[in-house]
Design brief:
Helix content: 40-55%
Radius of gyration: 22 Å
Structural class: alpha/beta
Bound molecules: zinc ion
Number of strands: 7
Distance between the termini: 44 Å
Shape: globular
Strand content: 5-15%
Number of helices: 8
Order of helices and strands: HEHEHEHEHEHHEEH
Largest sheet: 4 strands, parallel
Number of domains: 1
Strand order of the largest sheet: 2-1-3-4
Length: 192
């Protein structure tokens, strides 16, 4: 083979390899959302990940470190912890350095390359991680204070624990904070 032909062939092969890499990178982007397991110290983080719509278990203080690692492994969850020893046990772990809630959210999202939306539209029950379903005013009446019944128009109810959610000043404050987190992620992304 002459050297000119060799070079062209090499270029073609490099091109093909790059194309394969591109394709495999695309293929590697997980289509399913990551799911999480927070250790006993990260209850607030768990609630906020649920606001963002991420399936997040928070088993509290009951399970031991090895049980936590086992749950994470069995269910394919990312184990979130600030405990170095526990981090060493999990199959997929985010060892958090941040201590404040917003910093922790930014850390989890940026470490996993996530771009969440600042909306409660996909939120899960912040108490129990259950799915929220639309519910009528009549259905939620016993669980909602009268002034809320008089003003709120849409309600959602947890299919597991029955907790009722509605749009109000509390949820607006949550969305404002979600926006702050999302804005920080966008800035981080630009700086990279
Ligand atoms: Zn619930």
């Amino acid at each position: 083979m002459n050297s000119k032909l060799k070079n062209r062939l090499a270029l073609l092969l490099v091109g093909a390899r790059d194309m394969m890499l591109l394709m495999s990178n695309k293929g590697n982007v997980p289509s399913a959302q990551p799911i999480f397991l927070c250790d006993a110290m990260l209850g607030s983080l768990a609630r906020w990940l649920r606001f963002f719509g991420y399936d997040t278990l928070f088993p509290g203080t009951a399970p031991t470190d090895s049980e936590l690692a086992e749950i994470a492994r069995e269910e394919g969850r990312w184990l979130l912890t600030q405990d170095r020893e526990l981090a060493g046990r999990g199959p997929r772990t985010v060892m958090l350095r941040a201590t404040g809630l917003e910093d922790q959210l930014v850390e989890v999202f940026s470490r996993l390359g996530l771009r969440p939306e600042a909306t409660l539209g996909k939120a899960l029950c912040s108490e129990c991680n259950g799915r929220l379903e639309e519910a009528s005013k009549n259905e939620v009446q016993p669980a909602v204070p009268p002034h809320v019944l008089a003003t709120a128009t849409r309600f959602r109810r947890c299919s597991d624990c029955g907790r009722v959610y509605w749009r109000g000043s509390h949820s607006e404050k949550i969305v404002v904070r979600m926006n702050e987190v999302v804005a920080r992620l966008a800035v981080d992304g630009q700086q990279r």
